[in-house]
Design brief:
With about 130 residues, the chain is of the alpha+beta class. It contains 1 helix and 7 strands, in the order E-E-E-E-E-E-E-H.
Amino acid sequence: MYNYAEKRKYIRIEKPYMARFRVKPEGHQGVVSTGWDMVAVNDLGAGGVFFNSSNNLEIGTVVNLKIGFSTTMPSIKCDGIVTRVINHPNTFIFGVVTVFTKIDEHIKEMINKVAELNYRVSTPAVLSLAS
């Protein structure tokens, strides 16, 4: 049995969401590139997001994000920094781990509450299958 300590500060929502991102150019505070790339988010937490992209972003790249978290509210707008890039072998797809650097505290709390609710709802089902 694989036993490990969870290192994440926040629970993740492992549900696909659509997101758009663009690279924020270095040294130009407030100025961003005009092109937005659309990606599917693999998981989302109050501290950051993981998505696959055809762009090989460098660690330390600052990005603007718009995440379609809910159909009943506007997209979440935030900034993040790329902390890890996973190169998928034999493809032109890269897994991108981004930590939020600028996000409204209310939005962060909302993401965390939804993640906790999803975790509580899914955990009993997993436990009942295991018993």
